Amino acid sequence: MRLVGEAELEDIAVGAAILGTGGGGDPYIGKLLAQEAVRRYGPVQMVTVDEVPDDAFVVPSAMMGAPTVMIEKLPRGTEVINAFKALGGYMGREPTHTTSIEAGGLNSTTPFVVAAQLGIPLVDADGMGRAFPEIQMIVATMHGVSATPMTLADEKGNSAVIDTIDNSWTERLARTLTVDFGATSMIALYPMTGKQVKAGAFIAGTIGLAEELGRLVRETRAAHGDPVGAVVERLNARRLFGGKVVDVARRTEAGWAKAEVRIEGSGEDAGSSLVLQIQNEHLVAIRNGEIVCSVPDLIVVMDAENGGPITTEELRYGFRVVVIGAPCAPDWRTEEGLALVGPRYFGYDIDFVPVEERFPR
Amino acid sequence: MRLVGEAELEDIAVGAAILGTGGGGDPYIGKLLAQEAVRRYGPVQMVTVDEVPDDAFVVPSAMMGAPTVMIEKLPRGTEVINAFKALGGYMGREPTHTTSIEAGGLNSTTPFVVAAQLGIPLVDADGMGRAFPEIQMIVATMHGVSATPMTLADEKGNSAVIDTIDNSWTERLARTLTVDFGATSMIALYPMTGKQVKAGAFIAGTIGLAEELGRLVRETRAAHGDPVGAVVERLNARRLFGGKVVDVARRTEAGWAKAEVRIEGSGEDAGSSLVLQIQNEHLVAIRNGEIVCSVPDLIVVMDAENGGPITTEELRYGFRVVVIGAPCAPDWRTEEGLALVGPRYFGYDIDFVPVEERFPR
Q1: Is the pTM of the predicted complex or chain greater than 0.90?
Q2: Using CA atoms, how far apart are residues B285 and B287, in angstroms rounded to an integer?
């Protein structure tokens, strides 16, 4: 167990935005909400997966919806508390721990608001090892863990509890409710025992890894080093492309932020172009018409100058960026994992090729 | 208190289909489900509103969705029990009574399934005195009764509990969930105390009235009398039009069955035409381009031969029909009532005129 306060949250937000592969919402907003909670209620106890008792009742807390809307509709901390408490009430048992559903701008830090305000420990873990756009896209699904009972709340005072026959049905119902709520909702879902978490239903150590990545960027930057190179090294990633953003086409569709981004190469990539296709997160990177990296591997866009991660909503014409590809959690590379989050699920008729195989060192 | 068995259900189904103004689903299916339940579990105790104890916990049970879909997706009795029990579980109190949300083909008899199977009494009442397409369109809304907590269940095993800030939000969330469920769901909503029911939140005696109307049609028919005339007399209604159905245009839209029906006049109406516009129920009757009857008054289509009510889904080319207009419950003619269910709510830019005023005797 260790305490996480304002300073650690700075690093966690940056690192989680790297692992978030462009999605999971605005890391700045997530950080502010979490830091405010920590200032008011004191630092959060973060425990490792190994430290969680078998009979613990672990309930992840998160936000759902199109992050583009979230930027305009700033969530209040209380809303996520409402969804979290409602789930405990519905199940007739107070959650003993919370954790992160995904690594990403908002959802890596959202559970810190819950943990701080309710004075419960947060488990250093997440459900994806990255961010993904749909609810069933979580390692826990492969471990037979149900996403429901799940609670959803909006900022107006509406709420819902759903109970579904599988996690794809959860996604379906929660998505339309979220659209009704105005494209954003606060959620609590995947209630688990400590035993399930320890058996691998969630990925251990993701928040600690995010913190490490954030610190690496900060320290390398301060030492006038190469933060992108440091992150590539730490994640066993590959540098895919460097250049300037020349086009960003966005649309919000059925509660998702969809976009296509075009980058014109510079330096060693001069004369080439890279297209990123996005559904909340980066799905594929297409270099000169050929897919060079795809889900479930992580496609990360970083500021060419300072190595800071750039979310899909921040991307603008003129940004000078470096795009890297990093290996996903091993669970995702199994047949079952690829059925859930592989390129074919997202409509790309290609086999998944690990980024390290495509670009051997 | 009196017992309602198979024979009474025959009459109730016919009478409720009259009050249902074309909507509320197939009376034949509703009757079959209720009769099967009564055969298996014994007759249902029907109590008057006055007989309900103040501290009773009354929970209406119903089906929601496009009745056109319901015809293909025959509901099982167990589904409505699931929604009903889930609401009791959520609220931590077993319902003591059930009742009908509306008078209509399915929803006047659906609660008999619940009452029979759970062995609880059914209150002789309904929330509308007719059928209406949306959840908030219920006298209880004007009495400040919340539609939530509300539970929804589908036939696959999915369910939801919603809690909303007002009854229009309930309609919105329940409608999209119902569309997700495949356009039909089983619901329990508007949990009330006996005291609220007695204070007029529900309309007393609707099921008894339905039974009386059904018996009237049956007996007048047997005596070779005029069943349509008998119903017109009993309801202080007006005969609006007689003729042959020449066109029926249907579409299922956002979980509603919408339609427009054209009737060519015969006999005293020869040379004229009547158009019915429908959203689950008949909304307006337009004679030669002029609205002659509108919501909230009841527009009822009856078989010209035998006086049986015809639902909007049964209407076919060639049917010889009589259309009558009947006064709605007085609550609906108040300013508040008309704001909820008046013609303007449904997009018709006209003032409501009571059918008795339009056609004085």
Answers
A1: no
A2: 6
